[in-house]
Amino acid sequence: MLEDRYNSPLNNGFVGINMSNSDARTAREEWGSRFGFLMAMLGAMVGAGNIWRMPFTTGQNGGGAFLIAYTILLYAIAVPGLMAETAIGRYTNKGVIGAFNEIAGGDRSKGLGLVVLIVNVALMSYYAPIIGWALYYAANSFLMTFTAPGFQPQAFWDGFISNSALVIGMHTVTMAAIAGTLILGIRRGIERVVKWMIPLLVLALIAVGIRGITLSGGMEGLAFVFTPDWTFLTRGSTWVAALSQALFSTGLGWGIALTYGSYLSRYDDVPLGGGMFTAIGNTSIGLLAVFATFPIVFAFGIEPTAGSNLLFIAVAEVFSELPGGAAWAIVFFSSFFFATFTSGIGISEVGVTTVSEETRLSRGGSVLAVCGAIWLFGIPSAYSSSILGQMDYIVGSFGLPIATLSIIMLVAWKLGPERLRVIDLNRNAGFYVGKWWNPVVKYLIPVLMTFIIGYGVVTSIGTENQRLTVVGIALTMLVITLSTVLMDLIDNSPGRTRGSTSQSGD
Amino acid sequence: MALSSITWATMLFALVALPGVASIVLLRSLRTEERKLELIKRQDAIDSYSPEALFDLREWIQEHPDDPYESDARQRYNECVRTLRTVDETYYNWSVQQIEDLELIEE
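Above: the input entities. Below: the structure tokens describing the complete assembly.
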């Protein structure tokens, strides 16, 4: 059994603190089982976006045609990108700032590690209130609120979201639960939670999907999503939407894969689990969400473009009309909570790992510091959904792409993909990664990321988001400048000397 | 409502290309891990590179003797060669001839 690997007398084969002389790795915790790592990666990358964005984006962009474009880009971009990010974590055996410091050395680009950390905290500050919404709805499903006589979903939602104390309270409970999980560490905390939450999420989505397609009119939802309109393959907008979905829904470059990868042992594989399974498994759950939501949406005549309202208002309405609706509501909203909660754990762990490595704080102290900061910064987003929307636009349009670009550039231009491929990526790998990987990581992903950022800026001109775009650009420049200066000052402080990686090896 | 054949085909393609592949990858990943554990338990070590990967590593070391990562790469290469010479059963598909042809890279 994999779970027994750390209990066996041959423990030292897998535990980092007893590495042979070719692995001067940091003494730190490692995943207790392969299954735990895979579920943690999946849980971190599967979030709210998979459940309400993937079905809608697919249906809106030519259905089956979009899926083909998306699948091509997923295999060509997201899989190699996630391999790179996970490998850099496993190789350096450090969190984001440590990895940037080790590879960029004396170069100013090491400040980008701090940028990735700041983006993660900003992302989690508005994602935590959304997890709080999911928790509130999951709790109410157990109270059978959605099947109670006279239940009004719009009034219920309005009553909840306008009650700032309640929303902030749910945000607080969420962050306390995440801190409680993280404080137990990788194996006893994260791994223990995701090993049952993710299989349950998958089972719940399959169950709801089967119920949905057996509803009268449910098949129309599948026809909307899967009927291909091939003309969409000739439209640039379809490929841009597929590219955005492939890059952002897989969590590529957010620092999560790097952080989780840093807890892998020397004998663990990266390409198969960290790359292929994470990217494709994550999208598979998005596909299951299509089956779980769209048959219900069409069976009950709900507007399919409703986004987050699709879940909290439209879908909440159908349970009273569904036979056994109370039980289905529990399954549906619990699975949504699991999807968001496990992402919250992954995003927060990026900060916890980094703070515990770069400061003198213990893991417990780091958890309290990071989760406390996220809770504090999250209060405005919990208080006002308008602020949450603005944060989502700025972080989603600029923060996350810059974080992704930073991590990919670290591999592509500082360490060099060939170095990483020959020394670490193919070590104990589940399959051999050939030289084709180098140009994908070095050129294709950075070019496409830059294009996506530019495309977002250009298309926002003249729209209501123009002001936010300007604010986003200004904030991004400020964060990059301050991070670079700060990390430079820290690096030049007495007692700190670092080497730098030349590019000759690539 | 009956779905058209092209809709069924697209749905099938999506199910095979995504959850189908993900399930196979998950099973393969878990099985290979079990095999690694079994080998480590039995012989205390496993070869860490496949023949293609070790060839790439050797080629890179020889082409970049002054690289700051050369020492780390060489240590990993030599460790794999030594392991291959001592273990009874290899994890990757190494032939006896391939193992005999391997040479350590001295500093």
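Note for the figure: The longest helix of chain A spans residues 325-358.
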